[in-house]
Design goal:
Elements: H1 8-15, H2 33-55, H3 64-83, H4 88-107, H5 115-122, H6 136-169, H7 179-216, H8 224-264
């Protein structure tokens, strides 16, 4: 708790520390075991859940589980259909995976702040963070994957020559004097996509996690009044945060579809 960590500042710093290998020196290249393990477990559970529902699917009146999965599938397919006008056999499953996976990772923020760290500490493991999307390494990893898909679809739809021609001639035309300005503008636009994807998701989830930590600090303040305010604040923020969790997953999915669709289309 906060009192045990030497105050609210130390409590927050403790909970913002990632679990890394002992040999790791930290920094940008540090391997965050907590973010990787939580995201992998959630990804496996999501895949297993949908696979089981697909195996048990019936053409008659669906059960509640099958009905929920069908609603999600139709919702995601509708978003893809509205934006992307090419072959959806790859982009549809990709959009579904992005939406559900990011939603589940965001939803880890609804767990009590001290729950997973307390469980891991019982096994001698400390500094465990439960929200992978509050880790900038994780959000950048996902956005860079989308970036690779953008490059792939650009070459697939336009060919090497067509894509190079677009980079050097759009948006100001094919005048040789404008080739360099065109190329620089296109590179800035291209690089801004993964950065905006990663920073938007990270910023919102990191801020939400920090608010939960600040509220949790009230529980150890030694005052019944602050304890009651903490319970009320945790409940209110948790309800509001459910909306943020869904919106951020939806935005990440939609922007992924939009960016790949833009790469697929010609100027």
């Amino acid at each position: 708790m906060a009192s045990e960590q030497g105050g609210l500042t130390e409590y927050i710093q403790h909970h913002l520390t990632h679990l890394t290998p002992h040999a790791s020196k930290g920094g940008f290249w540090a391997v965050h075991i907590d973010s990787i393990s939580v995201s992998l477990v959630l990804g496996i559970l999501f895949s297993l859940w949908f696979w089981l529902k697909a195996r048990k699917a019936t053409s008659g009146v669906p059960g509640r589980g099958q009905a929920f999965v069908e609603i999600v599938l139709e919702f995601v397919d509708g978003q893809v259909k509205d934006v992307f006008h090419g072959d959806r056999r790859v982009l549809g499953p990709l959009a579904l995976t992005v939406f559900i996976w990011v939603f589940l990772m965001n939803a880890m923020d609804l767990l009590p702040v001290d729950l997973l760290p307390w469980i891991t500490e019982q096994f001698g493991i400390g500094h465990f963070r439960a929200v992978p999307t509050a880790d900038i390494n994780m959000t950048f990893a996902m956005s860079l994957t989308v970036f690779v898909l953008i490059i792939f679809y650009s070459f697939k739809a336009k060919g090497f020559g067509g894509y190079m021609h677009e980079l050097f001639t759009a948006p100001f035309g094919a005048n040789p004097l404008l080739w360099i300005p065109n190329f620089l503008l296109n590179i800035v636009e291209l690089l801004s996509k993964p950065v905006s994807l990663a920073m938007r998701l990270f910023g919102n989830m990191y801020a939400g996690e920090l608010v939960f930590m600040l509220i949790a600090g009230l529980f150890s303040a030694g005052s019944w009044l602050l304890y009651g305010m903490g319970i009320i604040g945790y409940t209110v923020w948790g309800i509001f945060h459910i909306l943020i969790i869904g919106i951020q997953a939806f935005i990440f999915m939609v922007l992924t579809i939009v960016y790949i669709s833009m790469a697929h289309d010609h100027h």
